[in-house]
Amino acid sequence: MSRVPAAFEPAGKAPRDGKKFALRFWSNTHSRGMEITYSLVEKMLHVAAPLFKAIGYERLEKPVAAVEATIKGALFDCRMCGQCILSSSGMSCPMNCPKNLRNGPCGGVRANGNCEVYAEMPCVWVKAWEGSKAMEHGNKIMNVQPPVDHRLKGRSSWLAVSRGAHE
Ligand code: SF4
User: Fold this and answer.
1) CB neighbours of 43 closer than 8 A, spacing ≥ 6?
2) How far is the CA of 45 from the centre of ligand 1 (A)?
3) How far apart (Å, rounded) are the C-alpha atoms in residues 110 and 117?
4) Which domain holds residue 34?
5) CA distances to 12, 20, 132, 133, 142 from 136, in Å
6) What are the b/e assignments for 12-49, b being 16+ CB within 10 Å?
7) Which end of the chain is more exposed for a tag (fewer CB within 10 A), N or C?
8) Does 8 reside within a domain?
9) Residue 100 covered by a domain
10) What is the number of domains present in the chain?
11) Which of 77, 79, 83, 101 to mutate to test the pocket of ligand 1 (most atoms within 8 A of CB)?
12) What mean pLDDT value characterizes the chain?
């Protein structure tokens, strides 16, 4: 029987095997450095807000989302949910969980820390916990996240942060 992809899983994209090198796992292992970078990017986005507003957020949506998808796709296997919570999930993108859990892990984590659905893939939320332990504000992982809003799928989180929509 063919596998049914999760809502945020790009067609034909195989789940990450933890034994093979992937930037996603590197970013998670270097979560403290990513946290510092993320906070700098956030500050820059706030500074740029008046410029973005003058140009028009809707006009910027498509090009900025394309850049964001490329950079975060490489670094985090970002699925462009449009409401980024990387800084609250140890720099491990929750949309790579086949159940798309925003508050994890589920009860099915294997004894070796891998996903119950994709046996070769380390559980996204086990990785999130590990990443959070190295971060200065890693306790944000304790915050209960609202359900994912599917209407925002494909939209830029960066522009949303600049607008103050995610604060
Ligand atoms: S939480 Fe959303 S925006 Fe952030 S990396 Fe994951 S899919 Fe991309």
Assistant:
1) none
2) 17
3) 10
4) 23-163
5) 36, 28, 8, 8, 14
6) eeebbebeeeeebbebbeebeebbeebeeebeebeeeb
7) N
8) no
9) yes
10) 1
11) 79
12) 92
The model's confidence at residue 3, banded by pLDDT at 50, 70 and 90, is low
pLDDT, one tens digit per residue, over 93-134 is 999 999 999 999 999 999 999 999 999 999 999 999 999 999
- Distance of CA 140 to CAs 17, 51, 91, Å? 27, 30, 11
Count of CA atoms in the C-beta half-sphere (13 A) of 71: 13
CA-nearest residue for atom 8, ligand 1, is 78
State the pLDDT confidence band at 2, using cuts at 50, 70 and 90. low
- Inform me whether the pLDDT recorded for 83 exceeds 60: yes
Residue 11 forms part of a structural domain: no
Residue 9 has pLDDT above 90, yes or no: no
Contact 153, 82 (CB under 8 A): yes
